[in-house]
Amino acid sequence: MHSMRSSTILFIAAFLISVVRAANGNSTSVDAPTIVSAVFHYDPSKVAAGVAGGLYFIASLCLFTRLFMNRAWWGLCLPIASTFMSIGFFMRIPVSIYPNSLPIFMVQQLFIILPPAAYLAFNYILYGHFIVNCVDRHHSWIKPERVAKYFVISDITTFLIQGGGGGLEASTNQTSEKLGADILLAGLVIQTLSFAFFMLLVVHAWRSILRDHILPRQEPWGPILWILMFSSTAYMIRCIYRVVELAQGSGGYLTTHEIYFYLLDSLPLFIGICTYIIYWPTKYLEGSAKNIYPMTGRS
Question: Signal peptide position in this chain (predicted)?
Fold first, then answer.
């Protein structure tokens, strides 16, 4: 466990150092307008994309290892999404080489924008397992068995909205590009508000548990609350960044500097998923005395 924690810290450090060196100082493209320059307003760094793709791929392998060792099939969405995001980063390399290739650009955009919805879904599912397997249902505002369903439906909706917006944003037509950016922004705002409500749901459950004079730190499931809040906070940083970035418009400071994409988008997501490499939740779920929620994982 100690070596795994050290490796995760090294992954994050490598990610941070590499993207700062590779992405910092990237200037706005002054060449003839291309799809990439119209949307990104900078030349994507091949080095940063390769480093990010490689680290996400390593994280995916670690998550798959955790999942298969514990046979926790309910968590399959997390490593699969991380793998797709790794591919999305690698796709930024051909995007920088073929900046007018619409198919390559759209695949890259979708593989970068959409996987975080699955990261959120993992937290929704974990919350439901935690409430029913470890504590009492009355601690949750929403029936725990339905939490994942409701929030996943919300995320699928924003998934479709963002996907449509991302596709239109790649258009060389100025009107279509602006419409795509507005649609993408609307999808991100809805997703951010939805996830903020989920975090309030976790906080409410935590406060309700404390009101019943139950001390989480003395329970085998105690770390789950910290894991959920830590990873969710990391994801929320990304959500807020994306909303602010798009709200600034195509010429905004965040939009025109690639380094912020890595530091405030890719890195928080990476930290969030790496949390589960260190603290895979089935250990804490099965440590509870209760066992009334169907579980397939084992520690």
Answer: 1-22
What residue spans define the domains of the chain?
2-285
Q: Which among 152, 243, 231, 153 has a CA at the least distance from the CA of 199? A: 231
- Across the chain, which has 299 residues, the per-10-residue mean pLDDT values are 52 51 47 74 92 97 94 93 97 92 89 90 94 90 92 86 70 68 83 94 94 87 93 96 86 89 96 95 72 40
pLDDT on residue 224: 93
The model's pTM:
0.82
Question: What is the CB neighbour count within 10 angstroms for residue 64?
Answer: 16
pLDDT at 175: 66
CATH topology of domain 2-285: Rhopdopsin 7-helix transmembrane proteins (1.20.1070)
